[in-house]
Amino acid sequence: MEYWNKTCECMPREELRKLQTERLIDTVKRVYHNVPFYREKMQKIGLEPRDIQSLEDLKKLPFTYKQDLRDTYPYGMFAVPLSEIVRIHASSGTTGKPTVVGYTRRDIDTWAEVTARTLVAAGCDKNSVVQIAYGYGLFTGGLGIHYGSERIGASVIPISGGNTKRQIMIMKDFGTTILACTPSYALHMAEVMEELGIKKEELKLKAGIFGAEAWSEKMREEIERRLGILAIDIYGLSEIIGPGVASECKYKCGMHIAEDHFIPEIIDPETEEVLPPGSKGELVFTTITKEGLPLIRYRTRDISSLNYEVCKCGRTTVRMSKVTGRTDDMITIRGVNVFPSQVESVLLEIGDTAPHYQLIVKRVGNLDMLEVLVEMNKDLFSDEVKKIEIVEKKIRNAIETTLGIGVKVTLVEPKTIERSEGKAKRVIDMRNI
Amino acid sequence: MIKQISVFLENKSGRLAAVTKVLGLNDIDISALSIADTTDFGILRLIVNKPDMAEKALNENGFTVSITEVIAISIPDKPGGLATALEVLQNESISIEYTYAFVGKREGEALVILRTDNQQKAMEVLKKNNIKVLTEEEVYSL
User: Fold this and answer.
1) ipTM exceeding cut-off 0.90 for this assembly
2) What is the DSSP string of A178-241?
3) Does one domain contain both A216 and A304?
4) Which residue of A has its CA nearest to B58?
5) What domains can be seen in chain B, in order of their start residue?
6) Disulfide-capable partner of A232 in A44, A122, B24, B44 (CB 3.0 to 4.6 Å)?
């Protein structure tokens, strides 16, 4: 099976544009009438649904920012009543509260459709055995790939993350052919396999779909070599739908975006001007089939470029280049998105003044480690070691609860963290991804 | 009670030397010191002759400092001297958080610094049992 949905994935561009136009017009009407947030935004600039008649009119519409989802937490931007929402997921927000997304029954169906396309592009079919080592839970990774795999009819192993030795035993014994996890976890698995003396020839692995964090061509080569598989890059974000927004085909020359569901744009992050194809800039998406949480021109903060040429594989859908960076200070650690400002808000709650802090990100073996340096000050200091250790533990627990990952907290002497003129350099990323 | 200076030190080389340098430059004399250390940091405890000045000088030089009240006692510098004093505290169920001692300041006497979980009671109990508790003037003029 070359494609999951040949009609949509290889649609002539003229036909695709017509489809996108119809769906865009419908979506704008729907959000205008059902989401007060969008109605107000549009009315403020004197825009009405009937002003949007073509894809060129897309640029008339206002942008949506992660802050907007935070301001309307939790359900303020849903376009349907809660009774029609059948699934809720969440991902990290810039400070305390997570970003909440909701799906109607049809959205879940759409989601399975787009992730199925992703899996088939990697060579999945009903005879495949798919091991999903993405986290199951509020994170969209696990369940997203799960529904797509089931849709295809593959045999799904919903193992979620962690317990690597067990994962490898299952991978070998259950005959996994497709692995879905973060790229750094795949490398970690390769390492543990070597420790256990298990050779890649003993496995039935054929391919892997890897995403949720940035990874280099060098990492891809290493994964392909050590696991003996085809390693495919996938892209998604829970605000748009989760995994399934875009995926490479076997030719690995850009990720095909499910354009019949999500319209991409590249903009200049400063001026917000739309840039021509081929230019590097910030990726923006407009969902045109989602019902629960339709988003207009959502700024992803990911840097990429778009290529509209027809691919060798026959797909006509636009390809986005590998994400090369962010326009904000978010970092991804073991697949989890972390904002330095989250750490700041935690520290503010501990003492009277927020101490100076810095995040050091390292890759030890193949796993990301986050160390939070916190400057000692009068508030935190005590004459007794055990009291300082209690404060250290309190800070660590608070940060771990907020971020959702384990961290190391190191107390350092005052004035040892670099001060800077403008924006403080909060993150020292020592990984060479 | 005596004022003890406590300083936060990262486990990096040169930090202790830096502290003693500041004190030296400010003409402050150290009578006793002790370091409590963990994997990542240490707390330096000092008895000096000018505690308030020491606090100010160290603060100005970027160290995190606090002043803790401790008890200083003088015991005979011979076997059993310390045991007698500690037994007195134990009989009244007073726990010792930390302690350190130094000799040579007074002929035939050892001076012991104590931090307990009940400072007031400890002072009374020691005095009642004829253990010599030193005043601030006596300690700062050592």
Assistant:
1) no
2) EEEE-HHHHHHHHHHHHHHT--GGGS---EEEE-SS---HHHHHHHHHHHTSEEEEEEEETTTT
3) yes
4) A414
5) 2-68 (3.30.2130.10), 70-134 (3.30.2130.10)
6) A122
Q: Which residue of B has its CA nearest to A416?
A: B62
pLDDT at residue A242, rounded to an integer: 96
Residue A387 has pLDDT above 80, yes or no: yes
Number of domains within chain A: 2
pLDDT at A96: 64
Residue A214 and residue A318 in one domain? yes
Residues A206 and A145 in one domain: yes
pLDDT of residue A353: 65
Is the four-CA dihedral A320, A323, A328, A333 of positive or negative sign? Answer: positive
Among A268, A296, A328, identify where a domain stops: A328
Interfacial residues of B (vs A; Cβ cutoff 8 Å):
4, 6, 8-10, 15, 36, 38, 40-41, 43, 45, 62-64, 66, 68, 97-98, 115
Q: Are residues A337 and A287 in the same domain?
A: no
Q: What is the pLDDT of residues A82-139, one digit of tens each?
A: 999 999 999 866 666 789 999 999 999 999 999 999 999 999 999 999 999 998 999 9
With 0-12 CB in 10 A as exposed, 13-18 as middle and 19+ as buried, what is B113? buried
Residues A257 and A372 in one domain: no
Across the A:B interface, residue pairs with CB atoms under 8 Å apart total 45
Domain that holds residue A385: 333-429
The reply to whether residue B64 touches residue A410, judged by beta carbons under 8 angstroms, is no
B34: nearest Cα among B6, B66, B3, B62: B6
Q: Are residues A322 and A406 in the same domain?
A: no
DSSP-assigned states of every residue in A298-344: EEEEEEE-EE-SPPTTS--S-EEPPP-EESSS-EEETTEEE-HHHHH
Q: ∠A141-A145-A148 over CA atoms, to 5°?
A: 150
For the stretch B54-110, pLDDT in tens is 999 999 999 999 999 999 999 998 899 899 999 999 999 999 999 998 887 778 889
* Pairwise CB contact (< 8 Å): B43 & A388: yes
Decide: helix, strand or coil at residue A281: strand
What is the reported pTM?
A: 0.77
The answer to whether residues A270 and A194 belong to one domain is yes
Binary contact (B64, A412; C-beta < 8 A): no
- Are A159 and A239 found together in one domain? yes
pLDDT of the residue at A410: 92
Residue A365 binned pLDDT confidence (cut-offs 50, 70, 90): confident
Q: What is the pLDDT of residue A93?
A: 62
